[in-house]
């Protein structure tokens, strides 16, 4: 899958919409649930353009190490407000807060 298409974008966003408050998912986890396990970066591209698609809880998506998006200052604040915990190294405590749901 070389370029992002609308079907992939809406599939990604429908998965993101299922992440419950107080939980997070990783880009790779969403790519796998979408059926494209090698396309976690493409998931990130979809989420960077989310304002074109509507209101989705994109703040609940972090990288595989639990790091928040580097240029999004509000993301950790939004997660903390939902009760998501962080490690001393400012990463989401994935063992406790990673969403385990199926799509």
Plain-language structure description:
The chain has 103 residues and is mainly alpha-helical. It has one domain: Winged helix-like DNA-binding domain superfamily/Winged helix DNA-binding domain (Arc Repressor Mutant, subunit A), CATH 1.10.10.10. Helix content is 38%, strand content 4%. The chain has helices spanning 6-16, 27-33, 40-48, 74-81, 94-97; strands at 25-26, 61-62. A two-stranded parallel ribbon has the order 1-2. The protein is globular. It starts with 5 loop residues before the first helix and ends in a 6-residue tail after the last helix. The mean pLDDT is 93.
Content of β-strand: under 5%
As for the CATH topology, it is: Arc Repressor Mutant, subunit A
User: Treating each run of at least 4 consecutive H or I residues as one helix, how many helices?
Assistant: 5
Helix content estimate? 25-40%
Low-confidence stretches: none
Output the CATH class name.
Answer: Mainly Alpha
- Please, what is the CATH homologous superfamily? Winged helix-like DNA-binding domain superfamily/Winged helix DNA-binding domain
The main pleated sheet reads as: 2 strands, parallel
**Average pLDDT figure:** 93
Anisotropy-based shape: globular
Q: Features of this protein?
A:
103 residues; mainly alpha; Arc Repressor Mutant, subunit A; two-stranded parallel ribbon; 5 helices; 2 strands; 4% strand; globular
């Amino acid at each position: 899958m070389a370029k992002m298409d609308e079907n992939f974008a809406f599939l990604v966003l429908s998965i993101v919409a299922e992440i419950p408050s107080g939980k997070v998912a990783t880009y790779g986890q969403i790519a796998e649930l979408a059926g494209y396990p090698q396309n976690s970066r493409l998931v990130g591209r979809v989420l960077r353009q989310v304002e074109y698609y509507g209101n989705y809880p994109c703040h609940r998506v972090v990288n595989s190490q639990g790091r928040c998006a580097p240029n999004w200052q509000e993301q950790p604040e939004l997660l903390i407000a939902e009760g998501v915990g962080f490690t001393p190294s400012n990463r989401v405590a994935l063992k406790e807060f990673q969403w385990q749901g199926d799509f």
